[in-house]
Design brief:
Helices cover about 35% and strands about 25% of the residues. With about 325 residues, the chain is an alpha/beta fold. The protein has 2 domains: about 130 residues, NAD(P)-binding Rossmann-like Domain (Rossmann fold, 3-Layer(aba) Sandwich), CATH 3.40.50; about 180 residues, Dihydrodipicolinate Reductase, domain 2. The strands form 2 sheets. It has a 9-stranded mixed beta sheet with strand order 13-12-11-10-6-9-8-7-14. Strands 2-1-3-4-5 form a 5-stranded parallel beta sheet, sandwiched between helices. A hairpin with a 4-residue loop joins strand 8 and strand 9. The longest helix has 19 residues.
């Protein structure tokens, strides 16, 4: 049986509560020792989850510097689930303190911060995994393996869509404050789409053209992107963040020998081979979510599917998309 890992959670808002529920199913391998949350209301809401599970809620130390000083000798890892603008400095501080880190997406605000975290990772030798559920899912890893093996043939193109009532649902929150969020729907929920599509492609974009609509909000809530990969394969991306109350996605990846259908979170995987008349489910191992996958990477059971290089990749892609959208869909060469 693996040794139990002591972890701190930085930020215990709404997204963190989803992760906490998953992590509390893995108490044989994980103990949430302490949390770091400046908002007393958010802490109280998260503490209630522990109480309902018959567990003592972990203490809250809202000052990260003090937390690292007081608990450093007891901690092995940190899971950072804070607003995007906090990611770089908090992750660097935790790795410098000797902790392995799982970091919520998007990893950072820009490419400069991404390269900085890569340097900290290299200098400290600590593990950094970006919490993209797509990259970490058995479904997307299986899809990538099938393509790399040659079983699917050549990639012809990918079409992806994500929709959510994001614009109305995030009014008044930090997600619509550009200085804190770094972007709107395409940078938040849409980040999963950008990342998973590039994972499936196995190569980066060479050029993109994009349109964004802010719908009188401070950040974009709708976006359409067309692009081309190094191989010449063409990509379409559609982010519909002003949808009716909902949150879902579809990705179709077209190969010369098959079509794959999945989602931006790796929530499904289906395949239709040449000569077949319908999609069939591709069976993969069950997963309890990103924390389980983080532990597998940390224990050496699998290679890291989501290192900080993934964060750099997405930052460069989103920057190119923004530049194109600011020029009314002008074609932009990617770095």
């Amino acid at each position: 049986m693996p040794q139990k890992i002591n972890v701190t959670l930085l930020g215990v808002g709404g997204m963190a509560r989803w992760h906490i529920r998953q992590m509390l199913q893995m108490t044989e391998s994980t103990q949430i020792l302490v949390v770091c949350e400046p908002d007393k209301k958010q802490y109280a809401l998260s503490a209630q989850i522990f109480t309902e599970a018959g567990l003592e809620p972990p203490p809250n130390q809202p000052d990260l510097s003090r937390l690292l000083q007081e608990y450093n000798s007891q901690l092995e890892a940190a899971f950072i689930i804070t607003p995007h603008a906090c990611h770089h400095d908090q992750t660097a501080a935790c790795m410098e303190a000797g902790l392995d880190v799982m970091l919520e997406k998007p990893m950072v605000m820009n490419a400069v911060e991404a390269r900085s975290l890569m340097a900290v990772r290299d200098r400290t030798g600590k593990l950094l995994v970006v919490a993209f559920p797509g990259s970490l899912s058995p479904q997307i890893r299986k899809a990538v393996k099938l393509y790399r093996s040659g079983e699917l043939g050549d990639l012809q193109g990918i079409s992806a869509t994500v929709w959510q009532s994001w614009g109305p649902g995030t009014v008044g929150s930090w997600r619509q404050v550009p200085e804190i969020s770094g972007g709107g729907f395409l940078f938040d929920t849409g980040a999963h789409m950008l990342n998973t599509v590039v994972d499936l492609a196995g190569e980066e974009f060479t050029e993109v053209a994009a349109f964004m609509d802010f719908n009188q909000r401070p950040v974009e809530t709708e976006a359409v992107v067309i692009g081309r990969l190094h191989s010449g394969a063409m990509i379409t991306l559609h982010g519909a963040g002003e949808s009716i109350p909902s949150c879902a996605s579809d990705i179709y990846a077209f190969y010369s020998k098959a079509i794959l259908r999945t989602g931006i979170w790796g929530e499904k995987l289906e395949m239709q081979r040449a000569g077949e008349d319908r999609f069939k489910r591709v069976r993969v191992p069950r997963s309890q979510g990103v924390w389980e996958q983080f532990l597998a990477v940390r224990d050496g059971k699998m290679a890291n599917p989501c290192p900080p290089e993934v964060g750099l990749r997405m930052a460069k892609l989103y920057d190119a998309i923004k530049i194109s959208a600011a020029q009314h869909g002008a074609l932009v060469k990617c770095e």
